[in-house]
Amino acid sequence: MIIRVQPGLGVPIYLQIESQVKHAIAAGALKLDDALPSVRKLAAELRINPNTVARAYQNLERDGILRTVPGGGCYVSSQSPGLMKSEKLRRLRPMATQLAVEARQLRLARAELLQLLENSYDDLESR
Amino acid sequence: MNDLAIETHALHKHYGDIRAVDGLDMNVARGAVYGFLGRNGAGKTTTIRLLAGLASASGGEMRVLGLDPRVDSPAILERTGLVVDKMLLPSMTGNDLVRFNRGFFPRWSDALAAKYAEVLELDMTRKFKKLSTGNRTKLCLLLAMAQGAELMMLDEPTAGMDPVVTDQLLRVMVEDFANEGRTLFLSSHHLSEVERVAEWVGIIDHGKLLLEGRLEDMRTNFRRVRVVGETLPLAESPDIVSANTGEGTTEYVVRADADAFAAQLVSQGATVLDVTPLNLSEIFLEVVGKGKTNVSMEVLA
């Protein structure tokens, strides 16, 4: 899996790494028990601080998305994210708001936006 | 104090009437990659010269690796890779300088010197005076990095380098220094490079440190809040870095608790258009451009 970060975005780099790993798992590019590069290796490849990579991995592990084997690397975990539903919704709300704003700006009907979302969901499930 | 590689308190350096360093308070943790940012003439080079014991302070306190540069400069330099003036003996080649330098440093590595010559694409058979500005900097870096030092103090290390070599240098900094838990203190005004590798950032202007903190915390906490409202309250908050009004819209930059700040404005009848993050360059411009001093560090530390 190729991770790319854009330091100039203003979005913390560890969040960029987290969201790319989540996306890769959702899209099927990363599968259960696939190995991720080590903290040191990824840091060197991306020319970023190793603590930034470590923080992203720790957050992903806390969310049950990765598991770390001491001295043996980092793998995609079998556990589904063990978050409360309210927390899951809280994380998605800003993105939902953004989508709604853009859709209204483009004069897209509510049903058309929902259809678009359903299509995206179907695409992920069919992989 | 032992967990700090560099520590200064109320550090001063005056040249006549010019206060090059004017009450600098700075803390660099051991093992950190610390980006020391400032405009030309802000006091970056002078600070590094003071820390290395190459210039004498006019006042204040400092410790480097637990030692006082005023009395222990040789002991500090033995353990510190220093790139500051970028001037070496003009008629010596890179290979001559490797042979000349290795005797001074107990942890010197010829293997590292050879590796960095390859990584930095440096011709080691050319005399120093025949090298371009960028290649002179590279040779200085090579000699500093081959020392096996626990602390690196680099003044504008990428100045004059092309993008390919800069990228290679950043990789070396992460692989051989950050990954190994060594302290890397680098001054720069190339914010995009610092934004990648630095975990800590200090912003200096007119000889004072205006802001010091973890870069990821700054990215998380600094927010631009755009607000529309006829009668905006004259918001009083120590977290407001700047406020600009034009054409019915007011733009605040806050450095902490942006959500609470926005909620407060909404409760006072304003409409919040959006709350957006700032990158390091924008944070730098806000902090330095407004010239607001004494931005307290507690929030970010």
Descriptive account of the structure:
The complex is a heterodimer of chains A (127) and B (301). With 127 residues, chain A is mainly alpha-helical. Chain A has 2 domains: 70 residues, Arc Repressor Mutant, subunit A (Orthogonal Bundle), CATH 1.10.10.10; 41 residues. Chain A has 5 helices and 3 strands. Chain A has a 3-stranded antiparallel β-sheet with strand order 1-3-2. In chain A, strand 2 and strand 3 form a beta hairpin. In chain A, helix 1 packs across helix 3 and helix 2 packs across helix 3. Chain B is of the alpha/beta class. Chain B folds into 2 domains: 211 residues, Rossmann fold (3-Layer(aba) Sandwich); 55 residues, no CATH class. In chain B, helix 4 runs antiparallel to helix 5. In chain B, the strands form 3 sheets. In chain B, strands 5-6-7-3-8-9 form a 6-stranded mixed β-sheet, with helices on both faces. Chain B has a 4-stranded antiparallel β-sheet with strand order 11-12-10-13, covered by helices on one side. A 3-stranded antiparallel β-sheet of chain B has the order 2-1-4, with helices on one face. The C terminus of chain B is likely disordered. The chains are: A mainly alpha (127), B alpha/beta (301).
